[in-house]
Amino acid sequence: MAIYSVSDITIKDADAYAEYMERAAPLVEKFGGRYLVRGGRVTPGEGDWTPNRVVILEFPDEESMMAFRNSPEYAPVGDIRHRAAETRSFRVEGV
Fold first, then answer.
1. How far is residue 28's CA from residue 41's CA, in Å, rounded to a whole number?
2. What's the Cα-to-Cα distance from 4 to each of 22, 37, 40, 57, rounded to whole Å?
3. Number of structural domains found in the chain
4. Mind listing the pLDDT tens digit for each residue in 38-77?
5. What is the span of the domain harbouring residue 31?
6. C-alpha triplet 49, 77, 20: angle, nearest 5°
7. CB within 8 A of 51, min separation 6: which ones?
8. Domain assignment present for 46
9. Exposed, middle or buried: residue 38 (CB in 10 Å: 0-12, 13-18, 19+)?
10. I need a surface site. Which of 54, 61, 68, 95 has the fewest CB within 10 A?
11. Is the pLDDT of residue 35 over 90?
12. Residue 59, exposed/middle/buried by CB under 10 A (0-12, 13-18, 19+)?
């Protein structure tokens, strides 16, 4: 079953975040994932949530997503994201 990572990102260092995006994309693909949303204009809907930058990733299954997140290749790239941005995220299974 497909699994999705939904993130609300507040960028603190645009240059470092640009490096993160460049380095993360090939790793997402290597582990079977793909970007469904990567930035773009956000129009708030109901409630009081106004996300900053939205990123939605799709992986074929949770195992693939976790292999990506826990891979030695991603560890230094993830460190860049942690320094460059504040992220709130969750995973959700698809149908």
1. 22
2. 20, 11, 18, 5
3. 1
4. 988 999 889 988 899 999 999 999 999 999 999 999 999 9
5. 3-41+51-93
6. 60
7. 8, 42
8. no
9. middle
10. 95
11. yes
12. buried
